[in-house]
From TrEMBL:
Its EC number is 3.4.21.107. PANTHER family: PERIPLASMIC SERINE ENDOPROTEASE DEGP-LIKE-RELATED, SERINE PROTEASE FAMILY S1C HTRA-RELATED. It is found in: Periplasm. Belongs to the peptidase S1C family. Keywords: Hydrolase, Periplasm, Protease, Repeat, Serine protease, Signal, Stress response. This is Probable periplasmic serine endoprotease DegP-like. The keyword Repeat applies.
């Protein structure tokens, strides 16, 4: 039975009257459908003073490297048309010459220290940052630190003579699709606006950075809500409102918030160090596709395949190219995005247990994490061009394990000095390389008539050929006598 209104009279042998305090519920197939809380007035009343408006004055000309980038979306994606609220519109919005103004939201997380959290894109390029309170007062804020990869900024204000209300982070992982949430912020400059909705989805990717893991909500979020809190019904912050999809700049019920479990770690590091210090594994990774899973005899495509180990990185000598990471420090690894996130969140210098599948056997190894520098990533075989990456000490590609051809390798395989290229140290039985008669000790001199001298160059050439739609890779090989030959390997 569905009720369009709180009270409905129906004809027939059965007349049901349902009365609830706070909720109107209808049992359907053993489940109780809830129309939500009758009121969030008490909850909102206790939280409004902890939510602030952020205003800035900006030098318009310099945009600065810290500006949150427009998501790189697939051509023809429905998201492509609608991502304007926090990205393209910011570039095209007319402003008076000289100084510009920005309005956003934020919230107090430490009343004693005067710590305020907001979005990085709210304060990027600001010459002055002002925190405005619900009672009409305002105070200048200083920037503690920013993280461009997650779009989070931490501010500090003087608390002298001021009594602040702070809110705390909750557990975003505990939120379920359909749970009620409440957003408070400064939409279109209307401070202290409260909206209510549900968690529409979790783990959303919108292409804004390497750690995309957004909560999607239908609680109304509009321009000016950026940096404001998304609360659960216990009054805990479970997200930071960041972006919306909208053809007009107004809410259509698709908003995105940074999960609190990701934000809390970033905020703590910015407060302690003024910067983020993320864990670094030092590997190149690629997804485990259905074809790869089948070729390795796996029941399902899961985990992350290591296509290379970076020279001098934490994983060198511990992990191997061809390993499939299925667990990291007790957390199951499903895909690349999850591995990037949990590695980055792990403390620098910590020793973590990494569970891998190696040649069909399950193994657990210990890796001491390094620190991820700004120009490094958890390494993907699909990384964008123009990013300087550390050298790859070894890699696995097309059924071959490849390494640098150094003096030790020359001695091991008795290779003369006039042979140059990338050494094939192992060949997987039954692989395309094995079928073409390639053996350990052979040296890859060229790929597609392009010379290669490092494992990374081999990986890059293979990726380039795939990007061109090629199905085969032409390799020039040298053996220990210096004799050259060509071999064609299928790449699919």
């Amino acid at each position: 039975m569905r009720f369009a209104n709180p009270l409905r009279v129906t004809s027939g042998p059965l007349l049901a009257v349902i009365v609830a305090v706070g909720l109107v519920a209808v049992p359907v197939d053993g489940w109780s459908q809830s129309r939500g809380p009758a009121s969030v007035a008490d909850l909102a009343d206790g939280l409004l003073s902890a939510v602030v408006n952020i205003s800035t004055t900006q030098n318009v000309a310099p945009r600065g490297p810290g500006r949150v980038p427009m998501p790189q979306l697939p051509e023809g994606s429905p998201f492509e048309e609608f991502f304007g609220e926090f990205f393209r519109d910011q570039e095209s919005r007319p402003r008076p010459p000289g100084q510009g103004a920005s309005l956003g939201s934020g919230f107090v997380v430490d009343a004693d220290e005067g710590i305020v959290v907001t979005n990085n894109h709210v304060i990027t390029g600001a010459a002055e940052i002002i925190v405005n309170f619900s009672d009409g007062s305002k105070v200048d804020a200083e920037l503690v630190g920013i993280d461009t990869k997650t779009d989070i900024a931490v501010l500090k204000i003087d608390t002298t003579g001021r009594s602040l209300r702070a809110v705390s982070f909750g557990d975003s992982e505990a939120m379920r699709i359909g749970d009620w949430v409440m957003a408070i912020g400064n939409p279109f400059g209307f401070g202290g606006s409260v909206t209510v909705g549900i968690v529409s989805a979790r783990n959303r990717q919108i292409g804004s950075g390497p750690y995309d893991d957004y909560i999607q909500t239908d609680a109304a979020i509009n321009r000016g809500n950026s940096g404001g809190p998304l609360f659960n019904m216990d009054g805990e912050v479970i997200g930071i409102n960041t972006a919306i999809i909208s053809p007009s700049g107004g809410s259509i019920g698709i908003g995105f918030a940074i999960p609190s479990n990701l934000a809390r770690n970033v905020v703590d590091q910015l407060r302690e160090f003024g910067e983020t210090r993320r864990g670094w594994l030092g590997v190149r990774i690629q997804p485990v596709t259905g074809e790869i899973a089948e070729s390795l005899g796996l029941e399902e495509a899961r985990g992350v395949l290591l296509s290379g180990i970076e020279k001098g990185g934490p994983a060198e000598g511990v992990l191997e190219a061809g390993d499939i990471i299925i667990g990291f420090d007790g957390v199951e690894v499903v895909d690349q995005r999850e591995l990037r996130r949990i590695v980055a969140e792990a403390p620098v210098g910590s020793e973590v247990q990494v569970e891998v599948l190696r040649k069909g056997e399950r193994k657990t190894v210990t890796v001491k994490l390094g620190r991820l520098e700004e120009d490094e990533e958890v390494a993907s075989a699909e990384d964008e061009e123009g990013v300087d990456e550390p050298p790859v000490a070894e890699a696995k590609v097309l059924g071959m394990s490849i390494v640098e051809l150094d003096d030790e390798a020359r001695a091991t395989f008795e290779l003369p000095e006039d042979v140059s290229g990338v050494l094939i140290s192992e060949v997987e039985e039954g692989s395309v390389a094995d079928q073409q008669g390639i053996r350990p000790g052979d040296v890859i001199v060229e790929i597609a008539l392009t010379s290669v001298s490092t494992p990374k160059e081999v990986l890059d050439q293979i990726e380039d050929l795939k990007a061109q739609g090629r199905k085969n890779a032409l390799l020039m090989l040298a053996n220990k006598t210096g004799e050259l030959r060509f071999a064609t390997l299928r790449m699919d």
